[in-house]
Amino acid sequence: MELCRRATVISHVSKSSLVSALALVAALAGCATVKDVGLRPLYVESDLDGTFEVRLDVAYRSDPEAHPQKHRLDLFLPHRAGFPLLAFVHGGSFENGDKGVSLAGLDIYGNIGRFYAARGVGVALINYRLQPEVHWPSQVDDVARAVAWLARHQEELGGDGRLFLSGHSAGAWLVSRVALDRDLLERPGVDLAGVAGVISVSGSGFDMTDEQTWEMLGGPFSEAEWAERFDPGREWDAEGWKSAASIVPLVRPEAPPFLIVCTSRELEALQRQNRLFHRALGEAGVPSHFEVVGTDSHRRMALAMSHPDRLLPQLVLDFVSGGAAELAAAWSARAEPGDEGRAALARATRGDRFEPDPFEPDDLVGPPAAAAGSRWLSEQSYGALDGPVGGDQADGVDWQPPHEER
Questions:
Q1: Core-most of 79, 166, 215, 293, by most CB within 10 Å?
Q2: Span 229-242, average pLDDT
């Protein structure tokens, strides 16, 4: 049924159905939003079975300068109180997208909300202003304000105090920035201390000073395209805007745990950016797990977020239900790299459902001494920056991409 876009509690009757596949438009380095229709059943509609409620277009800013559509969020709240709350930010090259995007009647991001709420996780879908109307610092500020609103209201919403941030593509960059930028912590009305973990799905642009990434993307042409997004007013030289927009320099030891996920079909440059980010977090002592999943393309990872047969949603559910705390506890007892530590880590991950990468000892980031029994401590979590990309290949659904994506 058509969903009325206003702040209200609604009921929704939906059918369990498998419908036409979708693809997500890929922009530079893969910041995607919904655009075209694919040929395979990649969208599985999640039922509203009466176990949660939906509130649409809730304002997280109400001052005179608030945007009437973009300073809004949608809530999917389990009826049973005491749930973790997952804030999700859509992608779209910083220029496109909306929490309410639909294509051929399919509610892409709303389906994410329904999927997790039906499984006991509250979800907030966050809108934010888009370029070129605003510059990227304003987009970061929008997401930070939304997260702060959720932190203030999560108890009355029924949350248990655990607030997780997640985003796809450009949204992954935004939530990572919000979780790490010290300047945001000093802004009036923005309290981000309660963030329990961050889930980055197919993000990029974490270290824009990395020259190898630019070479992999195509050199000067690619840099010019990115400059339009991150320095449209030409306020900096090339090194200036790259440094200002990079997230890696913001990494701090007290940051919350991170789950970093990308697909084996990402651009090599994007895979490298995820590895750079994961390594920087590990070197700073921030609990971080890096996972390469399945065979979905970058543009379809938003669909995979709510696909019951994909590994990605299981990773998310595991992370918010205890994996983040488990990862943090293990990292609090880190050991120095060495043969004994590597052996302990190997024992801990043998037989784990995560397929590990081969060890690259020189690039290990201090495996924990007491890793036994932790599903979050595969060798891949400490893998080499330039080593082979592993990841799960049994991702539930065997499918061939449409011709244009092969």
A1: 166
A2: 77
